[in-house]
Automatic annotation (TrEMBL):
The keyword Transcription applies. Residues 12-80 form the HTH merR-type domain. This is DNA-binding transcriptional MerR regulator. InterPro entries: DNA-bd_dom_put_sf, MerR-type_HTH_dom, MerR_fam. Pfam families: MerR_1 (PF13411). Coiled coil: none annotated. It comes from Mesobacillus foraminis. One of its GO terms (molecular function) is DNA-binding transcription factor activity.
Amino acid sequence: MSKEASYKDKKVITIGIVRELTGLTERQIRYYEERKLIFPERTNGGSRKYSFADIELLMDIAEKIEDGVQTFEIRQEMMKEKKAADAKLRKKMIQGQLNAQFGMRRI
């Protein structure tokens, strides 16, 4: 299932542009990466590259931090959301396999 990545997911934006778009400092952005809240790609030269989806996530993180939520709590929430999404995808895949194997339809 190799779909081409959406433009929102392509990591092509430099940290300087991210800083301008979000109003965050480079230090804040790097801190969120250090706290494993954001995962930029690295170029061969070591520069960070972000996506539009990363920018949206950074803005959500900054808003939660401003509301007093700790980075640990944000990471836990993100992990719960990822587990729920993974479980939903797994269920869809199993249903697809059953449909293919037995011609079953979703009830």
